C-alpha cells in the first residue's frame, strides 16, 4: 500500500481504513473502497473485507444469475442492508488507480465478470455518509486513507487486508493488528 493524501477531493478510488480506535461495529476493522465522494453531496463506499460466507446463488435463484451465481457476497455496509448489488473493480495500469463501477445491473455485471482484468463482487448494503459527515469523521481521525495497490482487491486477500495495512503503519499499529478483536475473549 502507498500513502495517500488526505485531501477530500481525492477520496474517490481510495481506501478508508478503520482506525483501531473506531469501535462502531458496522466499521470496526473494516476497509471501505470509496466509490464516490463529495463533501457537499455526501459519499458512497463499499466495505471490501467482510465476506458473508455466502455466494449469490445462496441468496438468489442460481438459474437467473448464470455466471454470477458463484460470486462471494460481501457486507458492503449498514445502509440498505436488505439489498444486493454488484460492483466491478479494475486496476488501471496507466494511472495506477482502481476504478470502480458500482450499482451494476445484472447484465452489466455478467459482461464485466467475463473480463479477466475486472474483479466483480456482490454486496449486501453499502456505506454512505451525508453532507460533511465523512469530513467530520476524518477530522476525528476515525479513518486512515490509503491508496489501493493492485493486490489489495484480490478476493482471497480480503480477510487479511485490514491487519496487513495496519502492520505497514508502524509498531503500534502492528501490535493492534495482531491483538484479538475482542481482548476479553483471549
CATH topology description of the domain at 2-84 and 123-154: VC0467-like
Largest β-sheet summary = 10 strands, mixed
Instruction: Provide a count of the helices.
Output: 6
What is the overall shape? globular
Unreliable spans are 1-9
Strand content: 35-45%
Tally of strands: 10
Please identify, by name, the CATH architecture of the domain at 2-84 and 123-154: 3-Layer(aba) Sandwich
Q: Write down the CATH class of the domain at 2-84 and 123-154.
A: Alpha Beta
Q: Taking all residues together, what is the mean pLDDT?
A: 88
Could you characterize what this model shows?
- With 186 residues, the protein is an alpha+beta fold.
- It has a domain of 115 residues: VC0467-like.
- Helices cover 21% and strands 37% of the residues.
- It contains six helices and ten strands.
- Strands 1, 2, 3, 4, 5, 6, 7, 8, 9 and 10 form a ten-stranded mixed sheet that branches.
- Helix 5 packs antiparallel against helix 6.
- The N terminus is likely disordered.
Amino acid at each position: 500500500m502507498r500513502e495517500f493524501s488526505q485531501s477530500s477531493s481525492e477520496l474517490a478510488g481510495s481506501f478508508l481504513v478503520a482506525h483501531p480506535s473506531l469501535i462502531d461495529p458496522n466499521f470496526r476493522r473494516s476497509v471501505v473502497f470509496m466509490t464516490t465522494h463529495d463533501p457537499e453531496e455526501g459519499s458512497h463506499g463499499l466495505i471490501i473485507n467482510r465476506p458473508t460466507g455466502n455466494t449469490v446463488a445462496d441468496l438468489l435463484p442460481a438459474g437467473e444469475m448464470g455466471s454470477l451465481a458463484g460470486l462471494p457476497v460481501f457486507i458492503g455496509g449498514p445502509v440498505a442492508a436488505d439489498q444486493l448489488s454488484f460492483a466491478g473493480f479494475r486496476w488501471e495500469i496507466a494511472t495506477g488507480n482502481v476504478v470502480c463501477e458500482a450499482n451494476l445491473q445484472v447484465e452489466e455485471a455478467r459482461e464485466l465478470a467475463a473480463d479477466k482484468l475486472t474483479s466483480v463482487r456482490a454486496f449486501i448494503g453499502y456505506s454512505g455518509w451525508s453532507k460533511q459527515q465523512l469530513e467530520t469523521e476524518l477530522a476525528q481521525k476515525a479513518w486512515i486513507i490509503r491508496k489501493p495497490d493492485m493486490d489489495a482487491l484480490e478476493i482471497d486477500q480480503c480477510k487479511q487486508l485490514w491487519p496487513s495495512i495496519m502492520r505497514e503503519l508502524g509498531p503500534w499499529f502492528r501490535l493492534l493488528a495482531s491483538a484479538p478483536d475482542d481482548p476479553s475473549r483471549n
